[in-house]
Every structure is written in C-alpha cells, then in structure tokens.
Amino acid sequence: HVDPSFRETFRRFFALAAAEDIMPRPLLMIPGPIEFETPVLEAVSRRGTSHVDPSFRETFSEVITMLREVFLAPDGQPFVMAGSGTLAFDQNLSNLVEKGDRVLVINTGYFGDSMGEAAEVYGAQVTHLRAPVGGAPTEDDLRQALASASYKVITVTQVDTSTAVLTPVEMYARVIREMSPNSILLVDAVCALAGEEMRMTDWDVDIVLTGSQKALGVPAGLAISVVRPRALEAFRARSQAPSSYYLNWAKWLPIMAKYEAKEPCYFATPAVSHVIALHAALAIITSNGGIEARFEEHAKVSAAFKAGLTALGLSQVPLSADQAANTLTAVRFPAGVTGADLLPKLKTHGIAVAGGLHKEIKAEYFRVGHMGASARTWRHVECAIQAIENGLRECGHECEAGAGLAGLQASAAGYEFRMAPQVPEDPTLPASQSSSSSACASAEGASGCAAKSCCGNGLHLLIGVAAVAAVVAFARR
Q: Using an 8 Å Cβ cutoff, are 235 and 95 in contact?
C-alpha cells in the first residue's frame, strides 16, 4: 500500500472520481449532522406512513417514553416538532417570555448570543453573563449576577458548538435554586444531549432542548424539548397568550398527550419519517447500558481523541480540560498552518471537519465532532486522527509519524467499548475503501500507515479505478 505505483494508482482514482463528481463522500466528523447508524437510515427510508396510522401512534408514544429516559426526566413533558434546534429556542422562549421580562444568558459563545437575540424578539430585557473565549462563568460570577437582579428565565448552553466549552450545568442549577428558586432554567443541549451528562430532574433543570442531528443521531429536522412542571406553571400564569400560533404550548400539549395515549390527533402534520427514525435512534441509545453508558463512551472517546491531538502538538480552545466538551473538540491551528491549507487536505484524506465559528477567533481553529455513531465506532476517531496527522505533515507541521494514533490508542487501552458495526459502508467503493476508512487508507510515505487495520486492499483499488474508468468511458460515448 506504500508502493509508488500503488500511490500513483490511488492518485489517478481520486482525480478521475473528482473530475466526474463521483468522489466518495468523506467521513462526516463535523459537530452535526453526524454519521447515522444503519437502523436509523432504514427507518427514515421506509414507505410513507399516515400520521394517524395506529402503528405510527404506537411509535410516537414510545418515543415520548424513551425521551424521558434519555433526558432523565420522569416528570418532564416532551415536545417533538418539525424544525431545527433553533426552532426549539423559539418554541420555549415564545411560551415563557413576555414583554419586559428579565432574561439572564450564561454566555459561552455563538449560541449564547443567538439565545439572547431570540429572547429579545419576545420583548425580554436580556443580560449576558460572559467569560473569556474558551471559558465559562464561574460560581462567583453567577452569584454576583443573581444578587444584582432577579430573572424570570436563565439560559445556558451546555456545550457551545462554537467553542467546545462544556458548562457546569449542575453547579449553575444548584446556585439558581438557592438564590433565585422561581427562575426558569433553560438549557440549550443541542450539542450535548445524549453525549454529555444531563440529569434533568435530579439537577432541577426546568427545560432542556435539542435538535435531532447531533448526538441523538437522526437527520436534521426535529426540534425536541422536555419541559418540567415549574416551566409549565409559568406558561399557564402568563398575562396574555403567546404571540406564536404554531409554537403555542396550548396547541401542542393536547397533541403530545394524545400521541402518548396512542390516540389519533391533529394540529400540524408531524415529520413522520423523522419521528420513526428518532424511535430507532432512541432504541439504540437506551440499549446496552442505556444513557449512563452513552455518557461513559462519549467521555472515553473524547479523552482518547484529545490525547491523540496532544501527541501531535496541538492545543484546544477550551481554557482547561474540565471545560472541554466530550461531543466535539475545538482544535487550534499550530503555528504556520491555516484553515485554507489544512481543511481541504483533510477532505482529500477522507474526513470532513468544520471551520471556526466564534467571531473573535474564527480563523484560529477548526472543530471535530465525535458523538453518536462516532462515539461507538472506534475506527472513526482512528481515521480522523490519522487524517489530521497526514494533513498537518503536508502543511509542514513537524510531528512524529504515528504519534497521534499512538496517543489515541494509549488513552483508550483497556477500555471495553460497547460498539457495534452499525454504520454503513459507502456503496460507491469496495468495503475496504469505504468513506469511513479512506482517511487511514490514504496514509503514504516511508513510514506507511500506522493504522494498518484501516488500510485499503490494493487489488480492490485497482478494480475500483478500472470500474470508474469504464463508467466514465461509457458516459462519454
């Protein structure tokens, strides 16, 4: 696999495939959407189903039950709507905020800014409690903010995707219940739910919202919230009805109750295929140890991935290890390397990552997601580390060959992963050259590929080149 003739064949294959726009899709290692597992893909591709069909009502009822398990909120009311995580912002704020209400945003990045902007749409007086980029407000910061004013709603992003900062939600909740017990604590867990520890009822969090496309592992299209009694009481105590028709909880509460009871109902047509896919994803999450096992596997895979990056001489945006998320990593570019140089090289090595998002440091870092299926499929993080190492070396960054993979594997030594081969191979290539393994297969040079278990079979690649050439020749006839 390191023979010069093989490398030339490999180069010709990708050049030909790219020229004809049939390049195999890179492994998706962005912080959402993520790679989806086979049962989820099978579920979303089923034939159309009526939203009042008895089988769908059964599915939706089970979804509501499983959401309480995943959110660890036995007293919570789930809401599942067609839309993105941003719609969940709108849904919850529109039902809770009235003109003049004070809202405190515990802000750790881009999505804290977005939450504050959304609250202002409904007339809130918004105060932002900020920290330096890469940090989170401390307990003393929060105590000072609560001592200076009272707030109807307090929001926090558990993991801000723009910085990969993990906030101490449990501590914030404890302080809020001590100093402002009637405030509604709303947690944006779009990039956290089902990957980071969240004990909604035990921590006395009022609302947790998320989107379907991240650690839950469902195609984008569902806005999901679980709302506990204190927030529902605040909604019912409003002085006037919410200004939104579609998002009004008065419309959705009876719908959720009907679906949970498996009874036919209608207000707005749900995203039927997405709800069926969500059922499949929740069944995966709640099996093999349940949500507790999901917390553990994300923490272990994250620690191993970050160890691999450290071995390559890379640093991260979060200011300390205890503030770093388990669902993604925000990686600073080393000296002399830019995103314009590195990111395209990572794609040629078979993985897709995300550029920077925080406006103050946008050009200084990139982001890698490792949640959901990629926290249960070890080769994903292996191939990502190998691709990053290869790309960095091509950019002139000095690092020992194989150091990243060695650091990753050493961190995970002895850990028994609960991983099943549930992520499908890319059908455009032979199995050993699938999109999920192409990153490792692309390693070349005197050192060879450190992750030999991911390396492609030369004969398969030669066959692939011949097949692509034949298809192109036929198409040009």
A: yes
Strand 77-82, strand 222-227: pairing: antiparallel
Q: Give the pair of three-digit tokens for residue 130.
A: 């900020």
* Secondary structure class of 394 (helix, strand, coil): helix
Tokens representing residue 425 in the block: 């191979």
Token pair belonging to 11: 């180069």
Share of the chain above pLDDT 70, in %: 83
Q: Supply the pLDDT for residue 447.
A: 30
Residue 361, Cβ neighbours under 10 Å: how many?
A: 17
Q: What is the dihedral of CA 428, 405, 215, 288, to 10 degrees?
A: 100
Q: From 115, 50, 73, select the one nearest 229 (Cα to Cα).
A: 73
Strand partners, 157: 188
- Look at 277 and 14; give whichever has higher pLDDT: 277
**3 state DSSP class of 414:** coil
Range 248-257, long-range pairs (CB < 8 A, 24+ positions) = 248/94, 248/95, 249/79, 249/95, 252/79, 252/81, 253/77, 256/64, 256/77, 256/78, 256/79, 256/80
| Count of H-run helices and E-run strands, the chain | 16, 14
Using CA atoms, how far apart are residues 207 and 189, in angstroms rounded to an integer? 10
Q: Strand 328-332 vs strand 354-355: parallel, antiparallel, or unpaired?
A: unpaired
Nearest to 369 by CA among 416, 417, 325: 325
Judged against a pLDDT cut of 90, whether residue 19 lies above it is answered with no
Q: What is the mean pLDDT of residues 109-118?
A: 98
8 Å CB contact between 69 and 290 = yes
> What angle do helix axes 54-71 and 290-311 make, rounded to 10 degrees?
60
In the predicted model, is pLDDT for residue 465 greater than 60? no
